[in-house]
Amino acid sequence: MEKNYIYDKNIWLTGASSGIGLEIAKSLAEFKTNLILSSRNIEKLTKAAATISGKAKVYAFPMDVSLTKSINETFEFLSSEVGFPDILINNAGIYEEKAFIDTSYEDFEKIINTNLRSAFDATQCVLPAMLEAGGGTVVNIISITALQPFKYSSIYSASKAALLSMMQCIREEVRKHNIKIINIIPGATATNIWSDNVLAKKQNVMSSPRDIADLVVATLKLCNSNTSMLEDIIIRPQIGDFRN
Description:
This protein is of the alpha/beta class and 244 residues long. The chain has one domain (10-235): 3-Layer(aba) Sandwich (Rossmann fold). The chain is 42% helix and 16% strand. The protein has seven helices and seven strands. The chain has a seven-stranded parallel beta sheet, with helices on both faces. Helix 5 links the parallel strand 5 and strand 6. Helix 1 packs across helix 7 (209-221) and helix 3 (68-81) runs parallel beside helix 4.
């Protein structure tokens, strides 16, 4: 396999134990790289890492993405054990379908901390080294809810819209330093954020996690360019968006 931008990089992937994150990990493992996987559940993360095979060296570092301290400690440890990440993939996220009037402050805080603050913290960890190295890439898994409203998704949508906006602003600050900020914006994807009932009815018309993983890999392959950058990429089911 020919060398490309992914080759021989340190790649830090959050939310790596299931769904889109696990499929991204499996796809990236095909390349000679250091693949650093993080997730909250160490047992689940270890089992997921054991299913990944390929040319990559795979490392598992448990981390609670909702806690700044956990992210900072994990970053310091992985940096000393493996090296500073050349590529960060902010994938960790949670979803809860609930009417706004039924949403508690605890719900709000949990979703914002996991979906937004975790990406803020992880990106703040990696950017200094990327600036010093003169380049790097941050990929963010957003959601179509960042661009259009869906009922019963107010806080989730807010977290993803804020993440998109924050990363677009960071991009303008760091593009002159050859740092690429890429936002992947999926529509409905067949992962366990959906209930079993919804998956049974709709899975065949959703995007698959593998579709998203293939897009991430294809995007990273194109990062060798010093003159062009992919920025915000929407991928949606062929039939369009829907909610049950």
